[in-house]
Amino acid sequence: MLFLFVLSSFFVIIRTVQNYQTDFTTIFTTNRLPWNGSVLDYRMMPYVGNGHVATVVFSDFIYMNGLYNGDNGTSHRARITSTLNWQFLFHPSISIFSLNVSSGTFTEILENDEVRIEQRIFTSQEYTELLISHVVITRLAFNGRKILVPTRINEQVASDDIDFVVAARNKQYVLLSGKTRQLENNQFQQEQLPVFVYYTPLPVNGFELDPQETSRTYLFVTSIDSEQARAKRSFEYASNERHPDQIWSSHVSLWNDVWSNGRVEIVGDDELQRQINSAFYYILSSLPSLSTRSEHKQFYGLSPGSLSRGGLVGEDYAGHSFWDTETWIYPSVLLFYPNLAKEMLSYRIALRDSAADNARLFGYEGWRFPWESARTGVDVTPYGYLDIATYQQHITGDISFAARQYIAATGDRKWLMSEYGGDLVYETARFWASRVVYSNEKKKYEILTVLPPDEDARPFKNNSVFTNAVASYSIQLAHRVSCITKKVVPQHWLDIASNLYFPFDNATQTHLEYDGFDLKNTIIKQADVVLLGFPLMWPMNKEVRRNDLLFYEPLTRASGPAMTWSMHTIGFLELNDFDKAQQVFRRAYETYIWTEIPEGLGAVNFITGAGGFLQAVIFGYGGIRLTLDQLEVMPPPRLPNQAKKLIFHGLKYHGAILDLTIDNQNYHIDVRKMDTNISMSLVYEYEQEQFPLTNNIRLSYPINTRLVIRPSMHLCA
Questions:
Q1: What value does the mean pLDDT of the chain take?
Q2: Where is the Glycoside hydrolase family 65 central catalytic domain (predicted)?
């Protein structure tokens, strides 16, 4: 069995001890930690998280959702000093370190002839304030002697980001009370952010076994929250009300519920299954728990480097949220966990006042979302990149497109009417309507001075074809849902949506990235024009789709970010170029191993790349397409790598729960559950025949043929 810490084959491949049985696809194991000289290399270490708190194992810091320090462009995740900062002073003959992605648990096992130490570290799914270390000392030699395992303690209270005071210290707990040192923005944040940390006193006297004891369990509880009463309540629950094994088993049970709620299964390719399991784990570890006994808290976004990193400006994007959230990570979450997708959109909605102010600041209307966002929703792009903050405006369209897909997947009218979803849709459309100018020469509307997704086009260009597409979709969406929101879209806006200028080269039948783009001599950073084909599904014929892929692939620089090649995979699968699709699919993860750029560089545990990879599996090899009107399934006649079967467990569509199984000849849809509380029924269509979709039926069809599932009536019928 092999081990990786970051995701797939990234970590040094080594032999593990064979005495301990593990599941190859969910438990990643090694007997040696990564070192950089004499210092543990935390960049290569795994993390545990639950969307509220997260930490890189054995690192010096813990991070909490929404806790930032620093003003404007210096804002970053506030570093809470680790409460598990101690090591065993022990010389083992056996060392095993493992991350179990199915249970969100890191385990350390150290053993010699006399004693075995097993430590589990996890962030609780049951009470998300909790970070737990569960240590079991077991006697192996029964010689009648007392056993003492000493420890090295490195307890730190001071933080560069938080003014902590020790408010209490006794045998039961230490309480740290503090506030962040700086406001992010004094217009939208009036006070420093509070944080309270309860933790079990560290094991300064080591770990003991009396002469007649065979084993002893130690529990170290940390509880962190912005409200002291909540932090204390969770600490007392874990410390006093439950046995340590019950705390862990409850946590494991809730992770099992996550996987039973939705997952992707690969039959015949364990290595690819590992990639998929780890990709989902690292994304889900930074999202709120699906089933928690904690009070609901506002979610504060997904950063490319996860919740476990970002404590410095320039490190893993300082914990900021970008377009990565909606464009790269969100789509794979939406179809399996629509409630979590809604949480992701709630972050943008919660910061709507900042978005409105940002639009006014630049002389526009509606909501303009910032390129980099943290606690308050003001733009926190570091000062050396202010041109990007000024011109990279497509993020507002990216957020609107994510809202479009949420509506398409759920038909959630309540969200539109009473949870500000309708405002999000309308106000982003208003922004684009105020942003365009009319060209008398082109007889079209234009969007000038913007930066496309390809950041190599800095500082700005005119008529980014991607930006114009998401702007058009944004206005169209506001019109489509107006019967629900009662927000009437002016005819002028619809004229804009229908008459935006799209740069296009007639000679090669290829979209141009922007006005004046040179198809022969320009190098680009990442996927841009190819995003028109997917995820946008912008109308075009197959010739143009193929040309976009073939022209832009060689123009993309080798050091570009990981997710680019996932979009090329989807495109080539659409065009039935299966060998090329396989080539770029493997490139999407093997070269990057979930770092941002090749060879382990850039942001690590790069969940943006993991999200792109999952899209290649779900929308590429799964052949799934989601539009405002319907869910389409048309798997291509090729499975990825060595897979014999591809199974999507728990796809969600308008209250229905579906399992999709794909083999080399056929695909099957099993309707696991229909939501009887939804008033609008679903129908399915195959070869121009239509039938009602009902509970517990199986639909089977040849691969490369199209099945459509849709509501029996249109959104605004």
A1: 93
A2: 310-518
